[in-house]
Amino acid sequence: MVTGMQGRRERKKAEIRARISEIATALFLERGFDAVSVSEVAEAADVARPTVFAHFARKEDLLFDRYPEAEALMVAAIDERPAGTSAVQALSSLLVGLADEGHPLSAMRGQFRRFWEVVAESRALQSRARELLEQIEQAIAVAMARTDVPEPHLTAALAVAAYRTVHLTAVRRILDGEDDAVVAAEHRAQTLHALAVVDGHLAGLRNQTTAAATAR
Fold first, then answer.
1. Which Gene3D superfamilies match (predicted)?
2. What is the overall mean pLDDT for the chain?
3. What pTM, to 2 d.p., does this model score?
4. Which numeric CATH code is attached to 2-60?
């Protein structure tokens, strides 16, 4: 009975959180992030201002509400990867799979153009995006260390940097008005290539280190 009540409570919290974020996002897309206050979001969502902050630590997180999902998916991909699959390969498969599904976390679609415009217009959002990406990198590094990946922090940093470069390049192209179908196809190929380069480079370094140690 207690478990059932806790489950309903958690579902209710998740529903309120999703509704607040949905309403906030609509306002941000319509008027821009900096032009909308948290109080306006609370009024539109018919909740108290403290309720907004009970679900979101920062105003920016109202728009970036899916970052926790991204972190959880990446950590799970590393933790649950098949034997013989590297952590970087697991991340690559996840990101390409999400893109193929049209998932907002990885897909390159013209329908997301306004979202990216809002981010490009706000230094606060850009700063928060960098902070959240650093959090994801740290979570990935911890998962890599837990699953015995050599040099986990270096591996996580290189993988995140590679994908960030590919992702931002694709976003800029869509903002410049390029055909999103072409951008999406090239984004997919470049994701595979960039992460394969990281994986291959790290494997090469490990082999060199092993050879040097054996030669001593």
1. Homeodomain-like (1.10.10.60), Tetracycline Repressor, domain 2 (1.10.357.10)
2. 91
3. 0.87
4. 1.10.10.60
